[in-house]
Amino acid sequence: MSLPSSAVRNDWTRVEVRALFELPFNDLLFQAQQVHRANFDANAVQVSTLLSIKTGACPEDCKYCSQSGHYDTGLDKEKLLAIQKVVEEAKNAREKGASRFCMGAAWRSPREKDMPYVLEMVRQVKALGLETCMTLGMLDGDQAGRLAEAGLDYYNHNLDTSPEHYNQIITTRTYQDRLDTLARVRDAGMKVCAGGIIGLGESREDRVGLLTQLAILPAHPDSVPINQLVKIPGTPLGDVEDLDPFEFVRTIAVARILMPKSMVRLSAGREQMDEALQALCFMAGANSIFYGEKLLTTTNPEAEADRLLFKRLGLSPKVEQAIAHPEGDALLAQARAQAAAGFFDPAAHQGQPLWRDAMVN
Ligand code: SAM
Ligand code: DTB
Ligand code: SF4
Fold this sequence. Notes:
It is built from 13 helices and ten strands. The protein is α/β, with parallel strands linked by helices. It has a single domain, classed as Alpha-Beta Barrel (TIM Barrel). Strands 1, 2, 3, 4, 5, 6, 7, 8, 9 and 10 form a ten-stranded parallel beta sheet that branches. The chain is globular. The structure holds S-adenosylmethionine, 6-(5-methyl-2-OXO-imidazolidin-4-yl)-hexanoic acid and iron/sulfur cluster. S-adenosylmethionine (SAM) binds next to loops.
């Protein structure tokens, strides 16, 4: 077996990616661990918290989604949240030890009248010292530029599945539309968060196709969320057959090998996984999770359960914010210690100034 390389390549072929998927499980995990350890602290996991800032009544027809207006999923719809409410939620997330706050809206794309609100959310959440991420649907160049200027660190927009399977899942926007939005995000200088969903009833070849598409983008996404479908009653995929859990782990491992310097996020679907399966995903190279009881509309493991899991596995929360400050190194060390303290004991922070306040003031 040849040793895996940590070189960043954007010329992966489907033949190579398929061959990785076909490796014996142990060989695949061994390769993924080697790549992971060559590029990251293998025991640090970045934690992001998600908030739905506008819920439901989405005009798109994504067949997996609780928020599509095309299906009756019994979801309570909500208008765009008030800025103050979003900032409160971000503060809570920060005190519980999250280092990034991700805001999601059920839009095809933001309307002009929404832009001042989302830009202000970015500014105020960022002023808390959190990294910011948004997922608002398709963006034009001007919107991407304004979000970047407001200080948005990451923009999430997924390819979801392979180009061949895509039309079975979404008909209201094209694969090319998605690639175009990713190019605009990249050109605006924001970090790209792009991944997909596994368990949509796709074939292994579709998983090969999705990961190949991500790995041949002009630059690998900085963050690659791998979601396991959360089955939503009322959607066309509400009772699709379960995927072999090892196939999910394989997908994480192949993503790690193809995109050695990207954060690979074990994203939606953790609530439906047992702890041993999550541990296998970390072993396969996942190094980021969503933390907090809710994803956008569905549940995520309790924060307490995640703290316990991290303790049992000897994992610690990773702070990756670059600190442009004369005392950057010292602040970063403090940030790491405080993130760990906040994560493992949220009460420890009550009333105490956080490192991030020191940095911002
Ligand atoms: N409306 C925006 C968009 O789709 O561009 C942003 C929000 S959307 C919910 C973000 C991503 O969440 C989707 O692209 C999909 O990959 C993932 N997602 C949505 N529903 C899911 C589900 N039921 N299970 C797993 N992942 C899901
Ligand atoms: C991503 O890839 N996964 C997150 C985030 N990007 C926005 C969303 C998961 C949504 C899971 C279903 C729900 O809670 O509605
Ligand atoms: Fe709308 Fe996003 Fe859900 Fe698709 S995934 S229906 S675009 S909220």
